[in-house]
Amino acid sequence: MVGRRKFIKKSLLSGTFLLPGTLEAVIKDSSPAYRPLILSTWKHGMPANDRAWDTLNATGNILDAVEQGVRVTESDPSNLSVGLQGLPDREGVVTLDASIMKGDGSCGSV
Description:
It is a single chain. By secondary structure, the chain is mainly α. Helix content is 43%, strand content 5%. It has four helices and two strands; from the N terminus they run ααααββ. Strands 1-2 form a two-stranded antiparallel sheet. A hairpin with a 5-residue loop joins strand 1 and strand 2. Helix 3 (46-59) packs antiparallel against helix 4 (62-74). Mean pLDDT is 77; it is low at 16-20.
């Protein structure tokens, strides 16, 4: 079992080397421990992973891949955890929020 710290370290290392046009070289030249990794905690995240991989293969940009993957989950009307069909919070209000951050510290949120 991979510990959380080791997982985060490997994830950061694999994401650091992803520049446009270099994804194929990274995958071919790296050991399995340093290949890009996209994962989901819940089953509804699997279609999001597929979209993220498609975007990552097309652009080599991990930030674009994450954004496109999240869009799939948020637009799924059967998912009641996120997006417009998300269940209300403890006060009975449906709140929408999202944020994303790049490795250089720049970020955005709604």
